[in-house]
């Protein structure tokens, strides 16, 4: 079977209109799912509260070892399975990323919140549920915490009217109900999970979506070719930094590029290219630096194109002969990418 590559958003212009389902039905559905998420989070909190712990462990309720820094992750995969522009690889992406966090980085399973459309996790990735999960991720964060936000799904752009963007566009993430309830803008993501980060708190975002380069609105973007950090502060002068913590984002492509959902890199199941290569790189080089990671991601994409694993003819036409995608690194502060080890 020939490898499949695609992002079906390019085939049509999405019309943001209501479906035949009434707004009342939509409201009931979102409310029900929101209640499910609330019960899940309450259950986690109850199980923690029910377990006797020494006083020192109150600072690390997500870790069985009171002396170990707290770890928490929110993983979100949106398939859009009821639409023409559905993605087939996000379920695989989320499962693989969760396994990486549990097996490679010792995240406790009870501290990983998952939203997918499969119904077997913690809820459906509606806009309301995603917003609540993002707030949960950084809630009461304290020094020593390591947080992860992972998203696999569609990303879009829209004109920026706040003069917050150097390129004039806001980047967005698309929940499953974005056609009726709207997208989640980079401004909101920054305010929700970047600004609250206190001194000593570390956040990693891994975003496998189109137009995702600066979707966290971080103030520094690394130029791999020039090997230097580029200023991404908003022209408006608005503050987009943290409250003393560190936010780092690894995204699938630049703001003006698209990302592939493909089986070319796995040989079987559909999966996001960034997710597949990110996991491969970490497993092959456990103590990989950020600089090494960027180079390895790009090398694997280029190798796939050269060897024919990716349908270059289709991609050249689809992306107007631009590079399929080039992984991006952005951060709330500059650091030596060739010295700093990626540790989640």
From TrEMBL:
GO terms for biological process: proteolysis. Coiled coil: none annotated. GO terms for molecular function: cysteine-type endopeptidase activity. It comes from the Eukaryota. Residues 70-305 form the Peptidase C14 caspase domain. One of its GO terms (cellular component) is cytoplasm. Belongs to the peptidase C14B family. This is Peptidase C14 caspase domain-containing protein. It comes from Nyssa sinensis.
């Amino acid at each position: 079977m020939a490898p499949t590559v695609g992002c079906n958003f390019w085939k049509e212009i999405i019309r943001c209109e209501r479906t035949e389902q009434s707004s009342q039905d939509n409201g009931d559905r979102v409310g029900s799912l929101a209640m499910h998420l609330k019960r899940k989070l309450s259950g986690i909190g109850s199980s923690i509260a029910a377990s006797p712990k020494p006083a020192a462990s109150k600072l690390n309720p997500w870790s069985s070892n009171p002396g170990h820094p707290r770890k928490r992750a929110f993983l979100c995969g949106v398939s859009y399975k009821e639409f023409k522009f559905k993605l087939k690889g996000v379920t695989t992406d989320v499962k693989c990323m969760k396994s990486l966090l549990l097996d490679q980085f010792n995240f406790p399973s009870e501290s990983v919140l998952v939203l997918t459309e499969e119904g077997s996790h913690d809820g459906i990735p509606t806009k309301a549920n995603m917003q609540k999960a993002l707030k949960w991720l950084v809630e009461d964060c304290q020094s020593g915490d390591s947080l992860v936000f992972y998203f696999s799904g569609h990303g879009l752009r829209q004109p920026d009217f706040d003069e917050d963007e150097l390129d004039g566009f806001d980047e967005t993430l698309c929940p499953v109900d974005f056609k009726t309830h709207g997208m989640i803008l980079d401004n909101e993501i920054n305010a929700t999970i970047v600004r609250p980060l206190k001194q000593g708190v570390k956040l990693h975002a891994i975003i496998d979506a189109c137009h995702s380069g600066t979707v966290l609105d971080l103030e520094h973007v690394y130029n791999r070719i020039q090997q230097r950090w580029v200023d991404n502060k908003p022209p408006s002068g608005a503050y987009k930094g943290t409250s003393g913590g560190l936010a780092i984002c690894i995204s699938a492509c630049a703001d003006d590029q698209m990302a592939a959902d493909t089986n070319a890199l796995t040989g079987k199941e559909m999966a996001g290219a960034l997710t597949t290569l990110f996991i491969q790189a970490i497993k092959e080089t456990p103590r990989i630096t950020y600089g090494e990671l960027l180079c390895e991601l790009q090398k694997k994409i280029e190798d796939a194109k050269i060897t024919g694993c990716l349908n270059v003819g289709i991609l050249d036409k689809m992306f107007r002969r631009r590079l399929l995608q080039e992984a991006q690194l952005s951060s709330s502060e500059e650091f030596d990418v060739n010295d700093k080890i990626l540790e989640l």
